[in-house]
Write a structure and sequence with these properties.
The protein is mainly beta. 0% of the residues lie in helices and 56% in strands. The strands form 2 sheets. Strands 2, 4, 5, 6, 9, 10 and 11 form a 7-stranded mixed β-sheet that branches. It has a 4-stranded antiparallel β-sheet with strand order 1-3-8-7, with no helix packed on it. β4 and β5 form a beta hairpin. It is globular, with a radius of gyration of 13 Å.
Length: 111
């Protein structure tokens, strides 16, 4: 069993930055791919960024050049650095290490 706990969400003005963290505990040796997803009110949950155990990354087109995903295997933590935030980035952000999900952290970007 793997537990994922997100932190770092909050309220920020447009153009600002936030860094999300996802700490994994439990049977972490099973983690291969990890990623961040987000769900805005009334919308489906979409992939934001994913990272493999080897460090290969993939991003949604809407966040390319603004967001950076990284992982610290020694700390069992995955990060999402979010820069140049826009109001449309407002959503609950979820950490994912298939098949496990965190409970999410809310990011609100004001205009």
């Amino acid at each position: 069993q793997v537990q994922l706990v997100e932190s770092g969400g909050g309220l920020v003005q447009a153009g600002g930055s936030l860094r999300l963290s996802c700490a994994a505990s439990g049977s972490i040796f099973k983690i291969r791919v990890a990623g961040w997803y987000r769900q805005a009110p009334g919308k489906q949950r979409d992939m934001v960024a994913v990272i493999s155990s080897g460090g290969n990354t993939n991003y949604a087109d809407s966040v390319k050049g603004r967001f950076t995903i990284s992982r610290d295997n020694a700390k069992n933590t995955v990060y999402l650095q979010m820069n140049s935030l826009k109001p449309e980035d407002t959503a609950v952000y979820y950490c994912n290490a298939p098949p496990h999900w965190g409970k999410g952290t809310l990011v609100t970007v004001s205009s």
